[in-house]
Amino acid sequence: MQSKFKLDEIDHQILDMLIDNTRVPFTDIAKKLLISAGTVHVRVKKMEDAGLIKGSSLILDYNKLGYSFIAYVGIYLENTSQVQFVVERINEIPNVTVAHITTGKFNIYAKIRAKDTNDAKDIIFKLDDIEGVYRTESMISLEESINDKKRLMHAIFNELI
């Protein structure tokens, strides 16, 4: 059974600022909250030790890097017992940025980033060639309309208070 980490108002305010900008200096947080930078550091460390905070992430602009083509690939397996083996092979393809083991239509659902349609085709063929993959079904993303974890994180932390 998982217990919820208890956040007080200061913890919540610290998290709010970190959610909005993971690179904000602890001294800036401290000044805004009228507490010491040491207090911010101790509280963040406590949340990290409890597993509430698992590092911070860097957000890249894939378009500027030349990887603006996004496709989603549903992967059907010959046998569900092959899931772990197939996921390990998928993990060797760097263009697969997300993969989920799923119920329903597909055994695995993956997101790929590519330079263009030819690059995407090559990546999808690599997925098709993995031993145990029966077939794939691809969908091209026309536009990523929402990609915002911040709203959910704010909502979750508001529930914890």
Description of the molecule:
The protein is α+β, with helices and mostly antiparallel strands and 161 residues long. Strands 2-3-1-4 form a four-stranded antiparallel beta sheet, with helices on one face. The longest helix is centred in the N-terminal third of the chain and has 13 residues. It is elongated, with a radius of gyration of 20 Å. The two termini are 20 Å apart. The relative contact order is 0.16. The model has no long low-confidence stretch (mean pLDDT 91).
Largest sheet: 4 strands, antiparallel
User: How many domains?
Assistant: 2
Percent of sequence in beta strands: 15-25%
Shape: elongated
Which parts are unreliable, with pLDDT below 50 for 5 consecutive residues or more? none
Task: Please identify the top-level CATH class of the largest domain.
Answer: Alpha Beta
For the record, what is the CATH homologous superfamily label of the largest domain?
Answer: Lrp/AsnC effector binding domain/regulation of amino acid metabolism (RAM) domain
How many helices does DSSP assign? 6
According to CATH, what is the topology of the largest domain? Alpha-Beta Plaits
